[in-house]
Amino acid sequence: MAKCYILGLISNVLQQQHVGMASSMDIMHNLREMFGQQNRSARQIAIKGLVSTKIVEGTPVKDHMLKMMGYLKELEVFGAMLDAESQVDMVLTSLPPSFNDFVMNYHMNKLSMMLIELLNHLQSTEDFQKKNKKILLRILF
């Protein structure tokens, strides 16, 4: 049954190459040999993107978080699993200096959040910073 499902999901060319194989395990093994290197390259690209992504000051934190979450989801698809705490740490290290107080508060209070919770808190912090900046500009001018 599994062999039929696999053959039904792959292209006609691949079907012809694998139809004579004895089991679904043989088909999967052969497909991994054929395409496994592509997964490794894609995983390396996702890791590089995740590690090198830094938010530019003034960029909406939501856009940055969605980008980071996308890289993390790609890594999960390619088999590179990061625990929730490490994912949050990756995001926190990518934030600009304007979020230093938030990061310090997060660590000092030993908070623990899922990425979606972190996104909500970061958006609240960003909104608060914008309001305070507007008030400060009104006072100064």
What are the main properties of this structure?
mainly alpha; 141 residues
Overview of this protein structure:
The protein has 141 residues and is mainly alpha-helical. It has one domain. The protein contains seven helices and no strands. Helix 3 runs antiparallel to helix 4. The radius of gyration is 22 Å and the shape is elongated. The model has no long low-confidence stretch (mean pLDDT 85).
Map the helices and strands.
Layout: H1 2-9, H2 12-18, H3 24-52, H4 61-77, H5 84-93, H6 100-108, H7 115-140
Helix pairs in contact: 1-3, 3-4, 4-7
The coarse silhouette is: elongated
Domain count: 1
Number of helices: 7
Give the helix proportion (percent range). over 70%
Global mean pLDDT:
85
β content, as a range?
under 5%
Which structural class best describes the helix and strand composition?
A: mainly alpha
Which parts are unreliable, with pLDDT below 50 for 5 consecutive residues or more? none
| Secondary-structure element order, N to C | HHHHHHH
Give a quick rundown of the structure.
The protein has 7 helices and no strands. The chain has helices spanning 2-9, 12-18, 24-52, 61-77, 84-93, 100-108, 115-140.
